[in-house]
Design brief:
heterodimer; A: mainly alpha; globular; B: 289 residues; mainly alpha; two-stranded antiparallel sheet; 11 helices
């Protein structure tokens, strides 16, 4: 019964969270919700628009899952996403006018993006283990540093050859990630995100290192007794988490924006945190939770009058959904836990 | 150096960090501080422009910070939810609500509306004066009162507090509320007194810097305020040094903008967290039985 009720309740709760937010904005929340759904799934334009947004949300959301599962509160997805984009753009630069096949370009750029994000994530783990710097604080600070770094690079070393606007040179569509249909924005990155869901699921739930990672997250003292080093596992988790967020940045660069600019990240790494939380840190559910938020982001384009409110709406929905989930979890669970302060 | 400008620029950081000292002393890590500041910044701006009263604006900013703190306290203290999860959600809530509110109330104004001014003598206005006075007052409250003793005990060994007849939850909620009120004031002063305008996400990490400041200041109000002045100084460099060559080298402006965060991170690396940190910081308290 519980197995059946929980997902139903979650879906109803999510619709309610959206309804509350829309009611704050317009006298006709039901109509708005219908238009939003229409905008997100009504036609191919809507569906592809939703999928384009689903891709970075899913990849970065998986990144958040990996870190949080190991007990590391990585809030730095945004910075790792940006650093991934910067690394990718650096590696892409020498090949911009070459005739390498797209898959070779993708390997180079996405590989660099993963490395960049992984380094940025691992740095926070290193600071935590060596100097006890709280991960929440360090990853937040690293976000701001990365964003200023992006501003520096697009006005400096990575600036377009024309030297007019703060942006990098555009990747030609032959070198970028291929699109299914030139009329729509959706690109092969969708496959990468779908594959990543499966890989991370297998890694976390079906592999030995993944088991160790979850164990460390649940009880690092017990793992030490079992010859698992929590420091190593957590550093690895942060690198993997950063790598996924960096990959999200690389895919966004190579598939969607095709160039870096000041507004390269539309807060993807940040939005990914509630995506992961709402999925209960479960990699499979990340796909669904990302779809929900991608649909709101894409569908809000269809709401006449508050087109520009898309991201603001989603922040409110995410906050209400996460707080609601937290409350339900707490209120429905019998209080049997032993005091942590004992 | 212009000390008056430094004081004004640093006041939002000092206020938010002082509030966070109280919260952390009681064992609660308020990750939602940034959101509470942002809420105060928007509410303050809104009232200042529409109501044309800077003092009412500050009061409403304080109120909004407090309301957000109470919401946060309900989840972290009462429901004992994860403090990072709740804090993150609070930040999102503030970011979304202020963004929507700003667009609804002001749209895209062709010219910035006039901002009423706080009465001041040099850099001393109602807020900077309050801030300076708050430093010794908070120290006294934390270190020389019965309430302060209970507060500190909540952060170190909450069981003992409960055993001596105090309510851990009540003390922690009060501490969070104080933090929220001060964060609301910090935000309102940022928009009304310092920037004299509002922009989405204008707190730009000041709430997180404030959390880091508490660690630099070793959980001591005066040292925390000094640390805030140091970070405020690094923030002021972006105005005074931007575009100027240093030792003949042209420094990119982004470096100045990134400097406060780099310095904050560097200091955290240097000082570590160490033994001054409250023992039960970040851990929810659950009554037994």
């Amino acid at each position: 019964m519980r197995r059946f009720l929980q997902p139903v309740a979650t879906v109803l709760g999510l619709i309610l969270a959206l309804g509350i937010t829309l009611a704050l904005l317009s006298p006709d929340p039901l109509g708005s919700m219908m238009r939003l759904a229409q905008g997100a799934f009504g036609d191919w334009l809507g569906i592809t628009r939703t999928l384009v947004k689903w891709t970075p949300l899913t990849l970065a959301g998986l990144g958040v899952v990996v870190a949080w599962r190991s007990g590391m509160y990585n809030i730095g997805g945004e910075g790792q996403f940006v650093v991934g984009g910067i690394f990718g753009a650096f590696m892409a630069r020498p090949f911009l006018h070459s005739t390498v096949p797209w898959w070779a370009m993708a390997t180079i750029v996405l590989g660099a993006a993963i490395v960049g994000g992984a380094l940025w994530g691992w740095l926070a783990a290193w600071l935590f283990h060596k100097r006890k710097v709280d991960v929440v604080i360090s990853t937040i600070l690293l976000n701001f540093i990365a964003i200023q770094g992006l501003a520096y690079f697009v006005t400096g070393p990575l600036m377009e050859t024309a030297h007019k606007l703060p942006q990098s040179d555009r990747i030609s569509s032959e070198l970028a990630l291929p699109k299914f249909n030139p009329a729509y924005d959706v690109h092969y990155g969708v496959f990468l995100a779908a594959i990543a869901i499966l890989l991370i699921y297998v890694y976390l739930q079906r592999s030995k290192p993944g088991f160790r990672l979850r164990l460390v997250g649940e009880n690092s003292r017990a793992t030490r007794a079992n010859w698992i080093e929590p420091e190593r596992t957590r550093s690895l988790a942060m690198a993997l988490s950063g790598g996924l967020c960096g990959l999200a940045g690389g895919v966004e660069y190579l598939g969607s924006t095709q160039q870096l600019g000041l507004g390269f990240s539309q807060n993807w790494g940040f939005l990914a945190i509630p995506v992961a939380l709402l999925a209960g840190l479960n990699p499979i559910l990340v796909g669904l939770s990302a779809l929900y938020f991608a649909a709101i982001l894409g569908g809000s384009k269809n709401l006449a009058g508050f087109t520009v409110d898309g991201t603001a709406i989603i922040y409110v929905v995410q906050a209400i959904a996460v707080l609601g989930l937290v409350a339900i979890k707490r209120l429905s669970r019998p209080q049997l836990r032993i005091s942590e302060n004992a | 150096m212009d000390w008056g400008f430094l004081l004004i620029l640093s006041t939002p950081l000092i206020l938010a960090a002082l509030g966070e000292v109280v919260g952390q002393k009681s064992g609660v890590l308020n990750i939602g501080l940034e959101g509470m500041m942002l809420m105060g910044a928007f509410a303050g701006y809104w009232v200042a422009i529409k109501g044309n009263s800077p003092y009412l604006a500050l009061a409403v900013g304080i109120g909004f910070g407090g309301v957000l703190a109470l919401i946060s306290a309900y989840f972290t203290v009462k429901l004992r939810s994860d403090q990072v999860v709740v804090g993150t959600a609070v930040n999102f809530l503030a970011l979304g609500l202020t963004g929507l509110g700003y667009r609804r109330a002001f749209g895209e104004p062709s010219q910035l509306p006039a901002m009423p001014e706080l009465a001041s003598i040099g850099p001393i206005d109602a807020v900077t004066a309050t801030t300076v006075l708050l430093i010794p007052l908070l120290w006294l409250a934390i270190n020389r009162t019965k309430w302060g003793l209970a507060l500190r005990a909540c952060g170190e060994y909450p069981k003992a507090v409960e055993a001596s007849g105090f309510s851990v939850n009540k003390i922690r909620m009060t501490a969070l509320l104080i933090g929220g009120l001060l964060a609301g004031l910090a935000g309102a002063y940022l928009s009304v007194g310092v920037a004299r305008s509002f922009a989405e996400g204008m707190t730009a990490g000041r709430g997180f810097l404030a959390i880091a400041l508490v660690t630099f200041g070793r959980w001591h109000p005066a040292w925390t305020a000094v640390a805030a002045l140091v970070l405020g100084y690094t923030q002021s460099l972006q105005y005074s040094l931007q575009g100027r060559p240093i030792f003949g080298v042209q420094v990119p402006s982004q470096l100045w903008l990134a400097l406060p965060y780099v310095v904050a991170l560097a200091v955290l690396v240097l000082v570590g967290s160490g033994s001054a940190s409250p023992g039960a910081l970040g851990r929810p308290y659950e009554k037994e039985g």
